[in-house]
Amino acid sequence: MKHWLYDRRTLLLLLAILFGIQLFIFFVYDLNPDVYDLNPDALGYMLLLEFVLINIYLVLDYWRHTLSHRFLTAQRKVPDLSWMEFDGTLKDRDYQRIIRQREKLRHEQAEQYRRDQQHMQDIHDLWVHQNKLPIAALKLLLEDPQPDIREMKSQVLRLEQYTQMILAAARLDSPETDYVFDWVKLDDILRSTIRTFSPEFIRRKLRLDYSGTEEKALTDARWLTFVLEQIISNAVKYARHEIVIQVSDAQITIRDDGPGIPGQDLERIWTKGVTGANGRRRTSATGLGLYLARTVMDRLGHDIRISTSQETGTAVTIDLRHAGILEHD
Q1: Among 255, 268, 230, CA closest to 278
Q2: Exposed site from 78, 176, 232, 288, fewest CB < 10 Å?
Q3: How much is the pLDDT for 210?
């Protein structure tokens, strides 16, 4: 009720003034309101005053209406409307709250879009930089009259991996990306991934210890394959003699006998673009594989962890005992 009265304060003030004019005329001309034969001069003077006052009110209201219309028309091309002021009515204050809420949401969405674009640009820059290396290596190999076919296949595999990385990064942030959970045979996925890297095992003379498994897990087969490729690729890259793959209770552990990860790098190894001390000694390290693997596992509701030492090498465990799409920024 009080808001309704406040919003109509100008009209109520006009009515009060008009009533005051009538009382003033009655008082000045000493008229009796109960008598109908009013003094014509008093009646004419009263009507003239009320007519002038009403017209002043209408002119001022029309002027305010016109200014408001021109102002709003001029602001249609202004993207930020949160600073706009209205005439103070309850309805206009409600509109103002809605506009400010929408403007806040728009700014948040714009900032998120900017961060996503910068994120993809960073990944793209890393990807372009790393692609130069295998391409340059292939050019050199092709200049040889008798190129090393195994080395050429290795470089092509690296190009395929880098391409899978950039595609995965794009799909991860796409609203059209779908995750299909099903009970999958872990042995099928592991053997398929091992076959992908079999030329690398042969070229680097690495022994593989994997006896197979009958276990199944509820997961997305395509994304799990991508994660396994990143982990096995790192294992092949750093292993000295042997890689061991074990599966137990829906947990896949991939262990290599490499130099291990220095303690100062262990906490940062999941960060985008961080290659660590070992990676810096190898020009083939991108700093994207583990970052994307961790991101995928988080999206699927799985867990991934690393244990390492200089004596036993590095072991990466993919825990598939929990599943479910998690919310992400």
Answers
A1: 268
A2: 176
A3: 94
